[in-house]
Amino acid sequence: MPELKLPFIGHGGDYNPDQWLDRPDILEEDIRLMKLAGCNLMSVGIFAWSALEPEEGHFTFDWLADTLDRLHGAGISVFLATPSGARPAWMSRRYPEVLRVREDGGRNLHGGRHNHCFTSPAYRAFVGRINRALAERFGRHPAVVGWHISNEYSGECHCELCQQAFRRFLKARYGTLDALNHAWWTGFWSKRYTDWDQLHSPSAIGETSIHGLNLAWKRFVTHQTVDFIRAEIAPLRELTPDLPVTTNLMEMFGGLDYRAVADALDFASFDSYPKWGHGDGEQTALGAAFNYDWMRALKQRPFALMESTPSQVNWHDVCKLKKPGMHMLSSLQAVAHGADTVQYFQWRKSRGAAEKFHGAVVDHAGHEHTRTFRDVQAVGALLPKLKDVLGAMPDSKAAILFDAENRWALADCQGPRRDMRHDGTVLAHYRALKRRGIDLDIIDQTRDLDRYRLVAAPMLYLLRPGVAERLSAFVAGGGTLVCTCPTGRVDADDLCFLGGFPGPLRQLLGIWIEETDALWDDERNGLRTRDGKTYACDALCDLIHTEGAQTLATYTDDFYAGRACVTVNRFGKGRAYYIATCPDADYLDDFYRMLVSELCITPVVSNLPTGVQATRRGDIAFVMNFAGAPVEVALPEGTDLLNGEKTGGPATLPVNGFRIIRIRTKREDKQYA
Ligand code: GAL
User: What is the model's pLDDT at position 672?
Assistant: First the structure.
């Protein structure tokens, strides 16, 4: 697989000259401004289908050729996009099968974007044809350094073609209807299927009560999207085998299993739109960092920050401007977590339509004398100084399991709470670990665990096949695992494990979970540790029996006061912890402080103040202040990459301030027993 190997940290954004073809003056001005802003990488052709094929089979590529030549002439590289994220009206009119069918059975009208059927042979043929034509004409263009296919794949179609493909998918997975009926527990409410043709996608006006069906459909949507992606890439691979392929992925997106999507790509790209300036700055920064750690870990290699806004978006409920310093800090945050590019949506504000007020490098005013442009320019001036991080990765010793299938199943689970708080719980564990100043990966259940000392698996409700065995082997070999309620409830078809929860993890965790209480949003229980400290907990409380595990904390309230609430089980050379409830942030902070120290995982920065993030790529450390106030922090020993000063002692980071430090010593984590 070709890799993204840029000779620079990419800087640029979505560039849509196709919206300005009647304004050659603007197109010329774009190049001047790009150079002025320190841009070296543009994504061109996204959503440009109607400009590339205005009539069926009639390609008008000359404007794109001119664009690529002009960019190349200015030393600017290009991610060339395939246009499949939105299609021209002629296609929908002549070939209605390309239009999506909703779950209520109605076919959409032409409109919007991301609105096509991934199964439609007609759509696949049109995409294949234009992609081939683009690759033939531009695949060897010296400006082109990679393919940006489509845009933010998402959504599902319930047309008859998709139903047939779904049935084929089910036949391949289950083989027989008997196996399917068993896996989906269709004896319940008289659901037994007797003919494959009876199978249909879940729908609010039809079937939603078979959780196995719901899960299978979500898997199918990923399967079919990935199948489409692979078909979309095929002519590109054939004609341009050396060009890496990516597509842009979205924040904590749950519609697709990104692990499977990433398998079809050469590198991951990410669109980042945190709500900077709203609410708790630490929390916003943690959300962004979580996504970056996820994107990097998807391919275990640097990713592209394909989109971010240089100022404000136009789709949050309230679209805040980035305050002074935030553009630089937020851009660096992505690089600090593994991005090899900083790119924007969008280069120039469109004049009309839905995104005319979305932030862009170039405003409607059309010149460089804006705060936003100067902010972008400053990033453009700084990135070349960070060239040494290109390709470098952190050496994460800790990981959090964040698994699409588990998330789907938990969202569909009825009881004991409507909101099982999966995402919030994962983020709470992430925050507690990140506050320790360590690098960490966000991985799913299928990933190799060997490289980690600590794996936190919050709410591992669904276990994919073989996962219990792999987690057990990880702990037996010396790893530390943290599980929380509700763990080990269902198998990959959403069938409950028989014989006592946490099912196949019972021996590893050394506990049996007999019951689970649910708490209202305004209810709390408490947990008391062995040294007498108490903390609040909420949402869910498993009532457990220890079966070899030691009790580390007990509940303080209700009829189960005094019963085990946090346990640890020695298993082989390692330990498996179980947190039977959702403890408050103070508990998680103390818990992970103890674990990270016991496991001798070296932080990039020790005693990190709240709101400060620290990461490391190779021998370069980033320390970033999202606290919204000046903070004092003990910098790692080394040399400031930007001003050459020696670092090592305490330093004050101003609001939105950062330091980038070449660390003196090579990372060497202390050995641990
Ligand atoms: C992204 C999308 C872009 C643009 C942007 C606005 O999700 O890929 O095309 O719409 O949002 O923030």
Answer: 46
Residue linked to tokens 């320019």? 377
- One DSSP character per residue, 419-452 reads ---HHHHHHHHHHHHHTTT--EEEE-TTS--TT-
373 ligand 1 Cβ < 6 A: no
Ligand 1 atom 12: the closest Cα is on which residue?
A: 313
User: What pLDDT, on the 0 to 100 scale, is given for residue 1?
Assistant: 83
Residue 152 designated active-site: yes
CATH number of the 10-161+200-389 domain: 3.20.20.80
Most ligand 1 atoms within 8 A of CB, residue of 49, 115, 270, 271 to mutate: 271
Give dist(CA 589, CA 609) in Å, integer.
12
What is the C-alpha separation between 522 and 554, in angstroms, rounded?
21
Regarding the beta carbon of 271 and ligand 1, being less than 6 Å apart is answered yes
Instruction: Evaluate if pTM is beyond 0.90.
Output: yes
Query: Ligand 1 in contact with 306 (CB < 6 A)?
Result: no
| pLDDT of res. 666 | 54
Provide the residue ranges of all domains of the chain, joining segments of one domain with +.
10-161+200-389, 398-598, 612-663
Comparing 398-598 with 612-663, is the CATH topology the same?
no
Catalytic entry in 282, 307, 368, 405: 307
List the chain residues with pLDDT less than 70: 665-673
Q: Quick: pLDDT tens for 33-51.
A: 999 999 999 999 999 999 9
The residue among 505, 424, 521, 442 whose CA lies nearest residue 470 is 505
Structure confidence at residue 664 (pLDDT): 87
Question: By three-state DSSP, how is residue 73 classified?
Answer: helix
Burial of 315 (0-12, 13-18, 19+ CB in 10 A): exposed
Backbone angles phi, psi at 80, to 5 degrees: -90, 130
Q: Under CATH, which number does the domain 398-598 receive?
A: 3.40.50.880
Instruction: Assess if CATH 2.60.40.1180 describes domain 612-663.
Output: yes
- Indicate whether residue 177 lines ligand 1 (CB < 6 A): no
Distance CA 121, CA 162 (A): 11
Q: Are strands 550-555 and 564-571 parallel, antiparallel or unpaired?
A: antiparallel
Substitution site in 49, 355, 356, 357 for ligand 1 pocket (most atoms within 8 Å of beta carbon): 355
**11's tokens:** 């800087």
